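Example for tutorial group B:
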């Protein structure tokens, strides 16, 4: 079903963006994701992080700074095995974008 595949695509896209942030920026708190994932609701972000934790790709760690409790999310050992795959997907996407841009430029010049 096309609607289901589009919905699944949105889920995986969000999860990939969460993982991309963790790969590039290291462990981060919930508010960091909220700030950097434009348009995502707290509920959706929470669900995505919970799914990644259930799959043992991401773990959550609590710590204190003085009397303030903080929580941060980080890649697990299993999650770190995805780094080369996610980097390869990013590289593919960048190359594909360049190809599409070249084709559009060529077609506009005709």
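The residue assignment follows.
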């Amino acid at each position: 079903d096309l609607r289901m595949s589009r919905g699944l695509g949105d889920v995986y896209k969000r999860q990939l963006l969460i993982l991309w942030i963790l790969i590039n920026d290291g462990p981060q708190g919930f508010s960091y994701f909220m700030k950097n994932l434009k348009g995502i609701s707290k509920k959706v972000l929470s669900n995505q992080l919970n799914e990644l934790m259930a799959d043992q790709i991401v773990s959550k760690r609590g710590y204190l700074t003085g009397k303030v409790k903080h929580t941060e999310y980080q890649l697990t050992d299993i999650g770190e095995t995805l780094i080369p795959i996610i980097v390869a997907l990013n590289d593919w996407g960048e190359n594909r974008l360049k190809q599409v841009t070249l084709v559009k430029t060529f077609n506009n010049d005709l």
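The chain has five helices and two strands. Compare this with the pattern of hydrophobic and polar residues in the output above.
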